[in-house]
Amino acid sequence: MLTAENTKKWMDSFYRKIEENKDYLSELDTPIGDGDHGNNMMRGMDGVKNSLAQLQDPDLKTVLKAIAMGLISKVGGASGPLYGTAFLEMAKKCSETQKVNELLSVALAGIKKRGGATEGDKTMVDVWSPVAQSNAITPKIIDDAIASTKDMQARKGRASYLGERSIGHLDPGAVSSGYLFTALLETEGT
Ligand code: ADP
Ligand code: MG
Ligand code: MG
């Protein structure tokens, strides 16, 4: 169950993972993209931190919206509106349910609709989808989902320009999504 409090803790933990792995994420984005994914996500998470810091005693919906706006306004790359849409969809749904897997399902649907990608296209969808569909998120589900993107050929985003040459590399947005879900897993009470 998400609450305003544990969602803020989740974001603190995601922030630290992005900070620690910023260079790695940009390195992953170098052979199959434009080498900026780590920097994009770091800027986005600075945006999230600032928007959350402005709020006084917010409810869950306000927290989720502030996360979305921070990401959409600061990331710059393709990943920003996609992550942002995910949190906006969760914000819309959270008055009805606070269950993690139900919120992640609407988030996934939003990402797919916004970006037009489906499973197997070598994008963040390949991590969001198995995680959203699992009743209990585990490190193995996350790791296997990330690893599965290596042998895929990209059909969406910049990596798709490379055609078959995109095969053999992990998708950077899949790896950053893995940090998001590891952070969630490590946040007590979710
Ligand atoms: P940009 O490619 O604009 O530089 P980023 O490097 O920040 O943006 O993000 C790239 C990541 O965004 C990819 O690794 C992929 O996971 C994700 N992505 C790109 N396009 C799409 C899409 N249409 N649907 C889902 N995810 C996408
Ligand atoms: Mg990029
Ligand atoms: Mg870019």
Observed structural traits:
190 residues, mainly alpha, Serine Threonine Protein Phosphatase 5, Tetratricopeptide repeat, binds magnesium ion
Offer a quick outline of the entry.
It comes from Liquorilactobacillus sucicola DSM 21376 = JCM 15457. With 190 residues, this protein is mainly α. Helices cover 67% and strands 0% of the residues.
Give your account of this protein's structure.
By secondary structure, the chain is an all-alpha fold. The chain has a single domain (4-186), classed as Alpha Horseshoe (Serine Threonine Protein Phosphatase 5, Tetratricopeptide repeat), CATH 1.25.40. 67% of the residues lie in helices and 0% in strands. It has eight helices and no strands. Helix 1 (4-32) packs antiparallel against helix 8 and helix 2 (37-54) packs antiparallel against helix 3. It is globular, with a radius of gyration of 15 Å. It binds adenosine-5'-diphosphate and magnesium ion (2 copies). The site of one magnesium ion has 6 residues, from loops. One magnesium ion (MG) is lined by residues 34, 36, 77. One of its GO terms (molecular function) is phosphoenolpyruvate-glycerone phosphotransferase activity. Pathway: Polyol metabolism; glycerol degradation. Its EC number is 2.7.1.121. This is phosphoenolpyruvate--glycerone phosphotransferase. Keywords: Glycerol metabolism, Kinase, Transferase.
